Amino acid sequence: MITLDVHLDAEASLTMARDVRRGLMTIPKEVSPKYFYDERGSRLFERITELDEYYPTRAEREILGGRSAEIVAVAGRPTELVELGSGSAAKTRHLLDAMRESGCLEAYVPVDISEEITQRTAEQLVEEYPGLAVRGLVCDFEHHLERIPDAGERRLIAFLGGTIGNLYPYQRRAFMCRIAALMFPGDHFLLGTDLIKDRARLEAAYDDAERVTAEFNKNVLAVLNRELDADFDLDAFEHIAVYDEAQERMDIRLRSLADQRVRLEGIDLEVEFAAGEELRTEISTKFTRERLEEVYAHAGLELCGWFTDAAGDYALSLARRPAQALPPGEPAPPA
Ligand code: SAH
Ligand code: AVI
Question: What is the pTM of this model?
């Protein structure tokens, strides 16, 4: 009962080459966080989720563990769960369990850029949920959302883990508008977001004592070395994680420890780093309820559920398309 559509091909390599070239030629230099997630990067992220300092996964698990039945009820007992950036789908089991218990579960559609983890997750889930149809999609959710099959009767589209925080505001706006365009009446969108809190906790979450996050961050250089035949020396960069209060986001970078020149043979590019120069590898935006209401309103969606952990560190919000105001006498469309 598994299908896996892979939409990362020659086009993806070209996109990567173009992205990386553009990123290394801007000031400050940057590389998109989507390139963190090769097999090793996905495993390092799994280790991050188990760190004491990294509270978002625990907080989201607490909410899903306690409130999934309610979420499924408010979402109208969806038959299909579409999950963007699904990874290992560890916490998703709570939603799948709640859907199974309410008798509505038919299909799960994991959407992720990493083929290895999506394949592994799909195989595990069909074993754990007999009869479940798993239709995986390996693609870039920023560009290929329209490839998501729309077979489901009522869909819950989930974007967990706070991954939306890794998009810049302009990317987030475009992404949200495409999500809204994808939604039929009766579909719901479930979004996980980390909430604004004090700097010390935020910075510790992204700079753990075991240095796993530093390893995860530097892994992007290993990906560039392999995919673009580059010669980044991972030991010549240090991991930096600072909270930018004005932008309400963590700013995650790699700082060059020396003057150095790096060659990316695969894209015929040579870049220089001065000692102390930083390469941004990720932002991780933190939200408030008010900010999220604005995000939804801009996309033409409305908030219809708000769930936080007991400490108020993290939120899951549920959104839907507002009911259309109908001209007098016109019948309502089928739900
Ligand atoms: N949802 C999981 C994993 C979060 S890690 C959790 O909450 O723990 C972010 C996930 O998003 C990774 O699995 C990564 O491969 C995927 N991802 C990142 N950028 C992506 C993109 N542009 N398109 C598709 N998947 C992406
Ligand atoms: C996937 N994403 C939501 C994580 C975050 O918290 O922004 C990625 C991460 N980067 C460093 N630690 C975790």
Answer: 0.95
